[in-house]
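Here is one chain, start to finish.
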Amino acid sequence: MIRVLLVTQIGLIGNLAAAILKGEPDIEVAGIVTSAEEAMGRIPECDVVLVSPRLPDGTALDLTCLITEQYPMVKVVIFGLSESSEHVLRYVEAGAAGYVVRDSEVEDLLSRIRAAAQDRALVSPEIAASLMSRVATYAQIVTNAETGRKVTAALTRREREVLALIGAGLSNPEIAGRLVIEVGTVKRHVHNILHKLGVRSRQDAAAHLFLLEDG
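Its structure:
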């Protein structure tokens, strides 16, 4: 038996959805609540939580995050979403196991609930493509960051000091005065830094500062 908790600010919608679910032999309505606070107190009693995105002040998204973090065995299905891929992705990334758009049929709602209870995700081809694109983007960001850290780590201690002063906006003569070295030596360090980082300008070199490792 799949125990379902409905979370919606509009009581009529909750009652209508509950009436539909009660007609299914494998589904039991664990309750209807109208706020995220009430919902969190009932989560241990259910297997699937149907959450309306129309809860006030973005609490539907917060509730999704809380449930997936604190009760990973309980699945969240968002019902009544718009067709916007970006809107759907926000909830999927927050941990929702499924979603039902506004114009869906009753069978869609039931199939999403059953799929979520069986730890299966049902998404449209468009959302699947958007998810794959998002994952690829994140992977590239991580790869670039790791590569940047390795390159930056190749700098000597003095070159790191010079790079930090470049990032602070100091000129070569100012850097020489700060480090008590010759301007020519600073120029040599700057040349080496640009070469090791594979960049052409001081500004591009300074952009690598956030990749510096501790020590």
